[in-house]
Write a structure and sequence with these properties.
The relative contact order is 0.16. Helix 1 crosses helix 10, helix 2 packs across helix 3 and helix 4 runs parallel beside helix 5. This protein has ten helices and eight strands. The chain has one domain: Aldolase class I (TIM Barrel, Alpha-Beta Barrel), CATH 3.20.20.70. An eight-stranded parallel beta barrel has the order 1-2-3-4-5-6-7-8, surrounded by eight helices. It starts with 8 loop residues before the first strand and ends with a helix. It is an alpha/beta fold and 243 residues long. It is globular, with a radius of gyration of 17 Å. Strand 6, helix 7 and strand 7 form a beta-alpha-beta unit.
Length: 243
């Protein structure tokens, strides 16, 4: 499968920004900074401009990879996978974040269709909120992501999304992924206010050599987004140098 994000580590700014002027400023200030590996495009721009137009505007600013996060695609009827993937392919994104919590068939359909279309599926299944799982008062089984990972690997997925807030879970998932996938890529998400830190999460995911971070407000909310991205990348470098 194509590797969308180059290298072994880096920052992927999450462009969940309502104003296009703000988005443009963030991209212009971060696109050439060391360690910025791509961008996550979310629904805020897409609902305003449409997916194809949002991607076009972003392509005018950078040639870095674009990963589309439909907040979160995958928990849907499996037959929607063909339609959804075709539209994303036509819009010229590079990868898709998928949380196929609707069951094994959803994993097969959404991940499988992405691969067949030449898009890279980044598969996850847990978000960093306290009451997501049953043990915290939520509705999802606590081992939902464990089950999704097994099915995703069966479908030849090798890019994964892990929440950054729980060190023990990151260690367990990363070791399992590394033992079952050749040269996997892991993106960690949920930093700052959501409880994750670069230092802790990157050290916890050390079983997987290729580690990236999707970071939103720590970058987009900064008066100097480029400097904020650079600081986070230096934190990554320090973790890997100390390993």
């Amino acid at each position: 499968m194509v590797k969308v994000l180059k290298g072994d580590m880096g920052i992927v700014p999450a462009l969940d920004i309502e104003s296009h002027d703000h988005l443009e400023r963030v991209v212009r200030e971060t696109a050439k900074r060391d360690g910025v590996a791509g961008y996550k495009l979310g629904l805020t721009s897409v609902l305003r401009f449409g997916l194809a137009e949002s991607v076009r505007r972003l392509r005018d600013l950078t040639d870095l990879p674009i990963i589309y996060d439909h907040q979160k695609a995958g928990p849907d009827m499996p037959d929607m996978a063909v339609k959804y993937t075709a539209m994303c392919k036509e819009a010229d994104v590079d990868g898709l974040i998928l949380f196929p919590v609707a069951g094994p068939t959803a994993v097969d359909s959404f991940a499988g269709e992405a691969i067949r279309a030449g898009l890279v599926p980044f598969v996850g299944g847990e978000i960093p909120v306290p009451d997501y799982g049953v043990s915290g008062g939520g509705y999802m089984l606590d081992d939902a992501l464990d089950r999704i990972l097994v099915r995703a690997v069966h479908n030849k997925v090798d890019h994964f999304v892990l929440p950054a807030h729980d060190r023990d879970k990151i260690v367990r998932w990363s070791k399992w992924i590394a033992a079952n996938v050749a040269s996997p890529l892991v993106v960690l998400t949920g930093f700052g206010a959501l409880g994750g830190s670069i230092e802790v999460s990157f050290a916890a995911a050390a079983a997987c050599q290729r580690r990236f971070a999707i970071v939103g407000r720590l970058i987009t909310g900064s008066p100097t987004p480029g400097d904020a991205a650079a600081r986070l990348y230096e934190q990554m470098r320090a973790v890997t140098a100390a390993a």
